[in-house]
Structures are given as structure tokens and as C-alpha cells.
């Protein structure tokens, strides 16, 4: 009797297993089918130049490889035990605390590295330009982090404030002849002002609605810049934006009062780049310092409390209107600083520099870094901006994919794949935990499962 | 007006309060008062409109009709139905807790209590600029705020968990923390929406002691919505009973307990007494 029972259970288990296998196979087939449908229009046909005009060349073998990859990949994923994945999620707290202690050490190390970077032997023009670009995005990420990470207000139009800062500097310098150092605070103030202007209509909006309106705001600014020809130069942009000077010493080859003459150096175009590099480094570090200070002040705690629970904030006498507006204004102000730096670095600006993709990249930096985490945002900016550049000439991939592999064409694919991987591995960003702003005895990181992302 | 011979001016006077949501009348012409230094309870079956009264008091709803007057200890009067929610908490000195706990879960216990002291710290930080520069005035204010928070944590027995996330606390501790957070705003009237919900008998006994200590030691008036009769009858000085948005009884716990209308509507009646009670009500 007992044996029959065992036999039936075994048979049932076998049948269950059989069914599970069948389900996994079907899922993998569906994935393969989707991959097929997607890759036919993208990869199957290609036009090539041939004598006598364009020729359509079919690449069915590539499609077959992609479909096979999707099928095998899905099948492999379905065999990974889901229970182990959940236990991995439980472990993520220890991973978080380990990562954050590691990053606590990385922070000062990164700053030290950034300070000595221009004097390192490998720092050529290309490296310095890239470093300036990365630092600009670090600063923008830190600025947006105030709005999105701390106050929990999803802003998809952050690039608008970047544009306001850039155009403020360019126009003020052109019309009134103000120098960079006077225009920098003015540009920040103007951007903060526009932050408040945007803040008012969106005070009552939350979540998706807020995101859409901020997105529209970003586009409005860009389109106004594009069409107001008399004022902004429209698509022609503004050129001949003055360069910043080092205490009145200009970075020019000839003439009185130039930097290299004063210090008795030989002229080098790198001087100006290094100077710009230190300007953006200082600006970014100021942004970081102010944000860290603000987090420990009542205003910063009110931002985070508002992200956690707006109604509770009101019941404690916190004016959520001014709190939201202050988050918008201060985030926008740092965007404005970065914009005015961008204008002086480029010497030329046009609306094309302030498209939605920029907002999306800045937001991706904040989300990838872990909302609210300063060091996470910095690392994400280095990975996203620096990594994307690095992918232009990765040589080791040629070893894998053969000599004729062109990384330039594949870098966006590789980049997307890396983003997806990071988001699967750490859905709340690289540094997802929250460090308390104050502690009675010891500061312990708070797991990401408790920290809210904000809903408005 | 009720005949209550008060020794002091009532801290809260609600007159002809009516709240309509479209066609639904949630509260219908309710008048009541809470006396200074007393614990006043609002009880009633589910859906009687108790929380709606609270939301009108604390500015989360604007009442359709009615006047809510709050008199502070220094004689200042506030018409709560005209003020915004955060102004009520800030200037009128009304603090509240919520039926479903609304703590800042991702922030530590200590941070929760510091957010409650936002206004004083904000003033001390001189529009944040003084705080960023680290002026001594702000550092002093922050130290005082942390000390105050620590004192409250001692009182609610959570001092050892000050640096833990509020969301990690057990349920009963979260309830106590929410009360402490409301008290950190320096209120004169503390409004508690079902503070004993979900507590075990020992915890609800501790809650009784905490509320009595807030009334006796801090001199704070308390307005309380509660289902737990042990809490209500044990500590209230005065009880108002709502049913279907109408006030059906008002008085001391002993009076309310004996009121047949309350027994019929709220506490339930024995089968054989139904006729008697109905006759008494209709008379």
C-alpha cells in the first residue's frame, strides 16, 4: 500500500517536472519567436554599395544566431532556481552595507585622483576633455539628485535648467560684457527662478503626471530657444562666448596679460583645458558639499520626509509647497551653474545641446547610481559617460569577435546590455541603501526595501 | 451649547460641523467640545464619521458647514476650518496621528522625531544658509532637538532603537513612535486616531499610561478616536458618541455607558431588551 502511494507520488512528481520542462521550453520558444520578429527588420537585410547601385544583402545567419541566443538564454534563465534569486535579494542588505563602506573609502580616493589627474603622465588633451565632460555630468547628476533622489520628484526636463544657465551666461556676456565669474551666480539664480516657475504648476501633480509636465517644460524651453531668433539666435545658436580668465589673466597665445606670460611658461593650449577642468571640479565639489550639508539640515530632512510621506509632513507643520519649490529651485540652480560652465567651455551653444536625451542621460545617472546616494551618482556618471566613450575603441572585444568588429557601431547595444544587467542585479541602483542624516550612537545604512522612491 | 459647567475655557469647540461628499453626508450637524487638560474620546461604530471629524479638525478636509474654534493657553483663538493643514499644525498647536500609521519608514527613529521639530530647527538654520555654514546657533538648536527626541525615546522605551529605520520597528513601537513624533511638534491638542488598534492587552495598558502621563505631566489635552473600550473607558474624562454622522451621546464614561441610545447603536443589546430599548429611544 505504502509502495503504491510512493509510486504515485513519484509519478506525479515526474509528471509535474515534465510539465515544468514543457512550460520552460514553450517560454524559450516564445522568446526566440520575439527575437526573430525583432531581428528581421533590424538585421535581416542590409543595403550595400555595389557596382551598378545599391544591392540588398540578406543576413539570415545573423538572425539565426540572435534567435538561438534568445532561445538558449531564456532556457538557461528558467533553470536558475527562482528561490535562490529571492534569497539573493535578502542578502542584498549585506551587499549594500559592504558596498557603502567600500564606497566610503572610494569617495576621498576619487577626489584625490581627480585633483592630481591633470599632472599624471597619461593626461593628454583627450583625457582632459573626457574628464571635463564626465565632471559636468557628475555635477548635473548631483543637482538632479536633490530633486529626484532626495525630494522624490521625478523631473524629466532637467536639461531645461542646464539650457537656462548656458543661455543666461551667453546672453549676459554678449549684451552687457559681464565676465564669467559675475555671470556664474547670475545664471544660477536665473535657473533657480525658472525652477520655481516650473514648480508652481506641478505642485499638485504626482508620479507619471509630474514626469510628463516636466518633460514638456524641458521641450518648451528648447523650442522657445529654437524659435526666438532675434534673442537667442535660433538654430544658429550663440557663438563667441567669452572664456573665463584666471584672476584677469587670459588664456591666449599673444597679447598683454596672458596666463603663460605672467607665470613665465611656454604657451600651451592645455593650460586653458586644465583650468576649465579645475573650475568644473570645484563647482561639482561645491554641489556635493552643499547637498551633503543640506541633507543634515531641516530642509534636507523635510525633502526626504516628503519623499517618504507627504501627508505626515503636513500633519507635522511642514509647508510642502515651499519645501517642493526649494528642491526644484536648488536642483535647478546647480543645473544652471553647470550650464554656464558648458557655455564657457564650448564657446558656442545652440538648442541642439539641450535635447530630451540629455535629460534622460542625467536621470539614468541618478537612477543607476542609486537615488539619493552622492558617491553612487558620481560612479554612475563615470561609468555611463566615460564608459560610453571608452566603448568607442575597446580593443579586447576585437579579440573575442574578430578583427573586423567595429565597437563604434555596437557601443549603444553593449551599453544597453550593461544597463539591463545592472538593473536586474541591483534594481535600486548601485548604492541603494540610505545613510541616515544623523545618529544618536552609530550610523547604520538603511536597506532599500524600506526607503521609498517618492510618488510625486 | 451643552450645560457643562467648565472650570476652564474649552480648548476645542466644534459647532454645527457638517461634511458632505457629493450626496453623502458623512457628518451631520455635530457640536462638541474638548476641555483643556482632559482626554476626550470620540467613539462610534465603523463609518460613523469619526475620522472625518479628525480630518476637518486638522485641515485635511474643509468642512461644508460649521465652525471649529481652538483656544490656545495664551488666549489666542484660531478658526481651524479656515486654516491650511500645515498651518494648523504649526501655529494652532494641533498634532495628529493616523489610523494607518504614517511614519517616515525609510528614516531612522531619531530622524522621525527631528522632522517633527522642523519649524524650530528651520528658524535656527536661518533659511538654511546659516546651517550650511555651520553657525553655532544652529548647532545648539540641533543639539537641543536631539536631546528632546532622546527624552521622548526614553519615555516610549525606544532609546536603544534610535538609529534603526522606523519601518523596522514592531507594530506597537511604531504606534508609540508616532505619538512621540506628534508630541515633538509641541502641540496643545493631541489628536490620536485609533492609537490602540492592533495592540495586545499589555501594549494597550502601556498606551493608557503614556496617554495619562501626557495629560498629567505635560498638561496636553487629548482628543481620541478609539474602538478599544478598555482604553476609552479607562482613561477618558469625556466621551462623545457618533453614529451615522450624528452625535447621539455626550458625557462622562459612566453616563455614556448607561445611555440606552449608545447601547443600542454601539455596544449592542441583549435580544430580550431590544423592545424596551427601542421604546425608550423613541419616547
Question: Could you describe the 3D structure shown?
Answer:
The complex is a heterodimer of chains A (456) and B (283). Chain A is built from 17 helices and two strands. Chain A is an all-alpha fold and 456 residues long. Chain A folds into two domains: 2-80, no CATH class; 86-393. The longest helix of chain A has 43 residues, at 2-44. In chain A, 38% of the residues are buried. Residues 85-91 of chain A have low confidence and may be disordered. Chain B has two domains: 7-93 and 187-283, Rossmann fold, CATH 3.40.50; 103-186, no CATH class. In chain B, the strands form two sheets. In chain B, strands 6-7-8-3-9-10 form a six-stranded mixed sheet, with helices on both faces. A four-stranded antiparallel sheet of chain B has the order 2-1-4-5, covered by helices on one side. At the A-B interface, α10, α11 and α12 of A face α2, α3, α4 and α6 of B.
Give the C-alpha Rg of chain B. 20 Å
How would a crystallographer describe the biggest sheet of chain B? 6 strands, mixed
Write out the strand line-up for the largest beta sheet of chain A, numbering strands in chain order.
1-2
Fold-level CATH name of the largest domain in chain B? Rossmann fold
- SSE class of chain A: mainly alpha
Tally of domains of chain B: 2
> What is the overall silhouette of chain B?
globular
Strand content of chain B: 15-25%
- Please tally the helical runs of chain B, counting DSSP H or I stretches of 4 or more residues: 12
Structural class of chain B: alpha/beta
Q: Which CATH architecture of the largest domain in chain B is right? A: 3-Layer(aba) Sandwich
**Global Rg of chain A:** 27 Å
Low-confidence stretches of chain B: 1-7
- Sketch the topology of chain A as an H/E string, one letter per element: HEEHHHHHHHHHHHHHHHH
Order of helices and strands of chain B: EEEHEEHEHHHHHEHEHEEHHH
**Residue-averaged pLDDT of chain B:** 86
How many E-type strands of chain B?
A: 10
